[in-house]
Design goal:
With about 400 residues, this protein is an alpha+beta fold. The protein folds into 4 domains: about 15-85; about 90-155, Profilin-like; about 160-235, Helix Hairpins, CATH 1.10.287; about 245-385, Heat Shock Protein 90. It has 9 helices and 12 strands. It has a 5-stranded antiparallel beta sheet. A 5-stranded mixed beta sheet has the order 7-9-10-12-11, covered by helices on one side. A two-stranded antiparallel ribbon has the order 6-8. A hairpin with an 8-residue loop joins strand 4 (about 135-140) and strand 5. It is rod-shaped and about 190 Å long.
């Protein structure tokens, strides 16, 4: 196709160069078009990606917003649940057999007393616990749904319920015993009256001095028995009270002044520094008798060198008289029996003192509570209403 002339100048021939450039241009045109098309496609893909990214970003924002709302709703639900748990009148605890995993507000108040810790290791389903003067009833149930090995425990403070039950049982028991004592006293009083009459008639006649002395002993014994029976009848059904509004502080102070000689002789420290006047509606003579009985019992309990503290408190409904001592205290069984008539732990005692106190307080429409543990002394709390109670 090409001429091989002798001059060898075809490499610089303009025609030859033009032909080569034309051929090269024809060869380059498809590649440029391809590059341009590729660039256009890349631009379209980039625009599509940007558009999709914007859509995706918008969806992510919506999902994030929805998630935040769900989290807030979950937090509110959690706060609501915790509020309900903390508002429950019982303690709620979750344990795993080794430790306490959760405790609501009421349960947390029991943790320092060691009650919760003892429940984390028990295998029982229900039970009761005594802690000091408090009583607690609990039930437990196993958890499921992925929480196996854990138990929820509900703890209820039944101290007041048990105390009320104890008061009702004591009222019923003492009422029955009082009725029985009154009937027996009546039955005994009739023959005693006849014995006293015949002994008086016997003494009116002529008798040897020694025989008269014996009759006097018998008559003295009959009169002593008659006096005890009269006391039983008097305080089993107390006389009508002469109540008037006043301050317990003044009546208690007068009574303690009278008894201060006895406490000083026996080297017993008697403290009376009331924080309030203790306004109430009461019979002064009967309240004096209550104070004398309680302080006398406290003196016997503490012995020489002991301490007795008398205090006056008040609330919206009651004036409260408190007599405390640092004596040996009482076991629960003893504490349940101290108001029974003729019950006594003293070598010389009839066992009517606290029975009389109980009946006087009940006649006022009040109540009496005893707080005592062995080795920790005793406290008697007398609640006297501030207003006259009306029957419904």
């Amino acid at each position: 196709m090409f001429s091989n002339g002798s001059n060898g100048s075809n490499g610089s021939d303009p025609l030859f160069l033009g032909t080569l450039l034309a051929i090269f241009s024809v060869m380059q045109m498809p590649e440029a078009k391809l590059l341009e098309d590729a660039f256009n496609e890349f631009s379209k893909a980039s625009d599509s990606i940007i558009n999709h990214y914007g859509t995706l970003e918008s969806q992510i924002k919506e999902l994030k917003k929805e998630l935040e709302e769900k989290n807030r709703a979950l937090e509110r639900a959690s706060e609501y649940l915790y509020t309900i748990l903390d508002s429950l009148p019982v303690g709620v605890v979750v344990v795993d057999g080794k430790s306490v995993l959760f405790a609501n507000k009421n349960a947390e108040e029991l943790i320092p007393e060691g009650i919760i810790g003892s429940l984390s290791k028990t295998s029982d389903k229900t039970g009761e616990i005594k802690c000091g003067l408090g009583r607690y009833r609990w039930k437990t149930r196993a958890l499921g749904n992925g929480f196996e090995g854990r138990h929820v425990v509900a703890i209820e403070d039944v101290t007041e319920i048990e105390r009320m039950k104890e008061h009702v049982e004591r009222d019923e028991r003492l009422m029955a015993m009082g009725e029985m004592a009154a009937r027996i006293s009546h039955e005994i009083k009739n023959p005693l009256g006849s014995m006293e009459l015949f002994l008086s008639m016997l003494m009116a006649g002529k008798m040897r001095v020694r025989d008269r002395k014996y009759v006097e002993y018998v008559l003295f014994g009959v009169k002593t028995i008659d006096r005890i029976i009269n006391n039983i009848l008097s305080y089993t059904r107390p006389r009508e009270l002469c109540q008037k509004e006043g301050e317990l502080k003044a009546v208690v102070s007068d009574t303690l002044d009278f008894m201060s000689v006895s406490t000083a002789v026996r080297d017993i420290y008697l403290e009376f520094e009331p924080a309030c006047e203790g306004r109430a509606l009461f019979d002064p003579d009967m309240i004096k008798l209550v104070v004398m009985n309680l302080v006398s019992n406290a003196m016997d309990a503490v012995g020489p060198g002991g301490r007795i503290k008398v205090d006056i408190r008040e609330n919206e409904r009651y004036g409260v008289l408190v007599v405390s001592d640092n004596g040996p205290g009482m076991a629960e069984e003893l504490r349940r029996s101290i108001f029974n008539p003729f019950f006594t732990t003293k070598d010389k005692g009839v066992g009517l003192g606290l029975f009389i106190v109980y009946n006087i307080v009940k006649a006022h429409g009040g109540s009496i509570e005893v707080e005592s543990e062995e080795g920790s002394g005793s406290s008697f709390l007398i609640y006297i209403p501030r207003e006259r109670l009306t029957a419904i």
